[in-house]
């Protein structure tokens, strides 16, 4: 249910259950977690790209599995499938591009929104589908969405469950940008390739600082920046970045 391939230094991960709009079953959730672990641990992977095969990005939890008496119970679906996925995305020391190729619903929407750079094809859409089936938004949605678009809009989208087009999502500040369908795959892959050649350690430290940005006060955040900047300053990529600038040439970052 998950396909992955290493392309240069990018790990491309595809949700691959197209006839079910890439809805998550347990096996798929665990396989996605394993790919995220691999991305975190392998030094040769310097960026991650996540997209969906077929027409959808991901329709969230497979609802047939959710009500299957022999399937995992609801609380385990949250605690063993989605919570670890969101933490693995936010803790991954590599930039993660979420390339939303089609509809992203429920947990599928909130997994997309947890990415570092979220782009969508013009024909894609986002739905906080939970309220329509009597559930609450999970997969970090109640944390992430208000931070992205503000409390009022998040609350309305989560209660009404309205479908938001890619253009609306971009206007709301929910995603980084919209790409035309014809160039979507090529241009979104290129963003991941670009990130993979950037100073990987600095990007990891940037992500660490951003993870704290809405919960720390200013003084604490300034201290954190100081600490993380010191670490960035010790990297070889910092040396190379400054050297290349002074020599008026393109830097060659190694991620070290
Ligand atoms: C699906 C699904 C799906 C199974 C499309 N499951 N088959 C946490 C805790 C525990 C339990 C529950 O969940 C969670 C987290 C969550 O993610 S809750 C939210 C779960 N997701 C939804 O409620 C979304 C359900 N899907 C939809 O509303 C629609 O399918 C959307 C709006 C995504 C797309 O609509 P359409 O473009 O009209 O496509 P479609 O409805 O015809 O779907 C295509 C196929 O995919 C269809 O299969 P079929 O065999 O009939 O052709 C759907 O049954 C299947 N599918 N989502 N979540």
Automatic annotation (TrEMBL):
<dbReference type="InterPro" id="IPR014748">
    <property type="entry name" value="Enoyl-CoA_hydra_C"/>
</dbReference>
<keyword id="KW-0413">Isomerase</keyword>
<dbReference type="Pfam" id="PF00378">
    <property type="entry name" value="ECH_1"/>
</dbReference>
<dbReference type="InterPro" id="IPR001753">
    <property type="entry name" value="Enoyl-CoA_hydra/iso"/>
</dbReference>
<comment type="similarity">
    <text>Belongs to the enoyl-CoA hydratase/isomerase family.</text>
</comment>
<protein>
    <submittedName>
        <fullName>2-(1,2-epoxy-1,2-dihydrophenyl)acetyl-CoA isomerase</fullName>
    </submittedName>
</protein>
<dbReference type="GO" id="GO:0016853">
    <property type="term" value="F:isomerase activity"/>
</dbReference>
<dbReference type="InterPro" id="IPR029045">
    <property type="entry name" value="ClpP/crotonase-like_dom_sf"/>
</dbReference>
